[in-house]
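INFO  loader      accepted 1 record
INFO  loader      residues=212
INFO  predictor   begin
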Amino acid sequence: MTTTAKICGLSTPETLDAAIAGGASHVGFVFFAPSPRNLSRDRAAQLAARVPGHVARVGVMVNPDDALVEQAIAAGQLEVLQLHDTAPARAAAIKARSGLAIWAAVAVRTRADLALAETFGGVADRILYDAKTPPGAALPGGMGVRFDWHLLDGFRHPLPWALSGGLDPLNVAEAVAVTRATLVDVSSGVESAPGIKDATKIRAFLEVVRDL
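INFO  predictor   done
INFO  writer      dumping tokens
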């Protein structure tokens, strides 16, 4: 089993380059104004131009309107749209309009939460299992919260999937051992402060993933 990694919420050339050099299969650009990782169109375009063809560019959005989707795709040269808090019907409309691959985030706290994944059958190309943030949280992810990975034990995944939520260089090996994830997604776990990526932590995370 080979595991690959997405480094999400990148915002500087230095950290983007660290992710690429370290072997990330995907890089994530956030287009959500309340997030400390939110990118302007100009910054997204500058970063996207640095990404080689073998690394996929993922745009992360929260129930976006059509205008934001179009702007993000153009600026970030996106290949994948990662949608949080987005209903299956809306995700289907975005997929039809954009023609891009869709990753649907499923927020998990209990085993019952996994049922949402089934509703994206025929719509999404991948499910991203993320930790459900506390009630009233300003952001749907990227807060360093993890869920009980054993909740995935025996679950019949309706689609290809990735694991997110509270991962970092110290726990990603255990997370993969427990869940058998073939794609892991990290954001706050490779930061020195909210929204501030750390190139050293990015390299450390990717070294662990590469050695799995």
